[in-house]
Structures are given as structure tokens and as C-alpha cells.
Amino acid sequence: MSKPSMINVRNLSVKCGHCNTYQTLAHFARREGWNVYTYECENDVCDRAVTRTYLEVPAELDEFARRDPSWHGGKRHAGGGHAGAEEPQVFEYDPFAEPGEG
After folding, report:
1. Which are the contacts of 70, defined by CB distance < 8 A and separation ≥ 6?
2. E strand residue ranges, the chain
3. Alpha-carbon gap, residue 71 to 68, rounded angstroms
4. 57-89: per-residue pLDDT in tens?
5. CA nearest 90: which of 23, 9, 24, 29?
6. Fewer CB within a 10 Å sphere, N or C end of the chain?
């Protein structure tokens, strides 16, 4: 059996189905073997609570988060989570930082 391919969220684009613009990585959380990336629109058209996108990646396949094991993820906007979900812990994130810088 072949080894599963790694997933790098930096190679993905997330587009809003409501306003048809690309969303920005806003939050990151590690949960029970999964890395959860939250994308949101950065405009005045969409309500972030309604149009945010959650991308769940198996931790063992997540190349982006594995680049720096101490990396805890991102924060662009402070705010609530989706209904019924535990609110993820939010940390500052610089997508252009060198590995190990944040």
C-alpha cells in the first residue's frame, strides 16, 4: 500500500460561496488528531459567523503545521466559533514568517 500524500493548506485556495471572493486564514486549532483551519471573508458583504469555512486536515498528513511543531496557528479576527463546537485557542500567526519564528 502506498504512503498517503501530505497536505499543505498553503497550496489551497478557499473561496466564499456567498460573495465569490477568496477567504483568509483566520484561526487554527489542534483537535484530537486533526488540525482545524478556519477561513473567513475580509469584506463588509459577508457575516463571518455565517460564511466562515472550516478545513480539517489529519495531523499526520498536515505538512503546513508540521513545518514547526511549536506553531500554534493564527488569529486575524477575534470572535466566536460555530454552534456546538468548543472554541479553539487562538494564537498570533504570520503566514510569511520563517519556520520557527511564529
Report:
1. 100
2. 24-31, 34-40, 53-58
3. 5
4. 999 999 888 776 665 554 443 344 444 444 444
5. 29
6. N
